[in-house]
Design a protein that fits this description.
Blueprint lengths: L2 H11 L8 E7 L13 E6 L9 H8 L5 H9 L3 E3 L2 E2 L11 E6 L16 E4 L3 E6 L16 H8 L23 E7 L2 H12 L4 E9 L6 E5 L2 E3 L7 E3 L8 E10 L2 E8 L6 H8 L17 H4 L16 E9 L6 E5 L4 H13 L3
Parallel strand pairs: 8-15
Antiparallel strand pairs: 1-2, 2-5, 3-4, 3-5, 6-7, 7-8, 9-14, 9-15, 10-13, 11-12, 13-14, 15-16
């Protein structure tokens, strides 16, 4: 990259003078689909110069990228988005002249949210909370490359009151579902409700059940998958089982129906890691139908009927995963509340066709 281009990039990012540091790599990496960073992230590699004001890597990065708060920088380090000399950093990692610091920078924060009249399937609503049945192909919150058409845009249009959210420009968002995962999602309408609801998720007091259609039939009718998860070691768009550096992730599954080549399973998760169910089911060699990121296949009618291939729309073109049931305490009354959402049309059609053509 030319020096003039580097200077322009630094100016746009709000970066201060590097004081002898050298940008040795500066480029765009692929988007992280459905993860908390929903947009294109930026990969920057810095060679530490002689003018080292801060030796701790968190302080060093905060000084180099003023547009990011210390909390954001420490979160990047915690999520293994920062390496020093090819080793994952800790906030307290000390730097020396000549060290190479690799960092994946998140997209700039969204500065405004445009209300949009996007239809919402309301399951329940009162003064404290809103429960929706989220449709497929709906991102939960805006990011640089997706400023509109998100659930947050819809919520700002629909609701007079929403909590401030745990992060900027994510009002009401207590927990998330992947872009193409359908089903029950809880929204907080004020800050007190938000921290009380969020606390239940954090302390694992909620009960979350999903329905999924998977390839094949597991050997065990029910089981617990207890495997730590982290960012994939070579593809940051994905997550993977990481026994060395991953965070605890616990998934229980139960086979509800068996078909030739497929199964309907109920899933109960005790933790809420990004892509947890998708990664865990792929780990036991039974990926979710339609989840091509983790080995699932798009399914066509001719396949279910064992016929010759013909041009047609797929029965299932997205991951067949649905947030079916949520048990949670009301943030004000503490009453135990149970919410359920019926299977979306595409999953129900897939299930009907399996019962028709693939019954064992």
């Amino acid at each position: 990259m030319a020096d003039r281009d580097i200077s322009e990039t630094k100016r746009q990012r709000g970066e201060i003078d590097l004081g002898g540091d050298e940008i040795i790599e500066d480029g765009i990496i692929e988007p992280i689909e459905d993860a908390e960073d929903l947009d294109t992230a930026e990969h920057v590699a810095l060679k530490v110069g002689n003018n080292l004001t801060f030796r701790r890597v968190d302080q060093y990065l905060q000084g180099r990228f003023r547009q990011f708060s210390r909390t954001t920088i420490q979160k990047l380090i915690k999520e293994q988005a920062v390496k020093v000399n090819q080793h994952y950093a800790k906030p307290s990692t000390k730097l020396s002249s000549g060290d190479i610091v690799d960092v994946i920078l998140p997209p700039p924060e969204i500065r405004e949210i445009t209300p949009e009249n996007i239809p919402l399937d309301i399951v329940y609503e009162d003064d404290d909370m809103l429960v929706i049945n989220k449709q497929a192909n709906l991102i939960v919150h805006p990011a640089r490359g997706q400023k509109s058409g998100t659930l947050v845009n819809a919520l700002v249009y629909y609701a007079k009151n929403l909590s401030n959210g745990s992060e900027d420009f994510r009002p009401g968002i207590v927990h998330r579902l992947d872009r193409n995962t359908t089903g029950i999602l809880v929204i907080a309408k004020n800050d007190t409700a938000h921290w009380r609801l969020a606390g239940q998720f954090e302390k694992r007091l909620t009960k979350k059940y999903y329905l999924a259609i998977i390839h094949g039939t597991p050997e065990l009718t029910s089981d617990c998958i207890n495997q730590p998860l982290g960012v994939h070691p070579t593809m940051r768009v994905k997550y993977a089982v990481r026994p060395d550096t991953g965070k605890e992730a616990i998934t229980f599954y139960e086979v509800l129906e068996k078909f030739r080549g497929y199964s309907l399973v109920k899933v109960n998760i005790k933790t809420g890691r990004t892509h947890q169910i998708r990664v865990h089911l792929a780990y036991i060699h039974h990926p979710i139908v339609g989840d091509d990121m983790y080995g699932g296949k798009i399914v066509y009618q001719w396949q279910l009927e064992n016929k010759e291939p013909i041009p047609q729309e797929p029965v299932m073109a997205r991951p067949a995963l649905h947030s079916w049931r949520l048990e949670i305490a009301h943030p004000t009354t503490n009453e135990n509340m149970v919410f359920e959402a019926p299977l979306p049309a595409d999953m129900q059609k897939m299930l009907d066709e399996l019962r028709k053509f693939r019954t064992t």
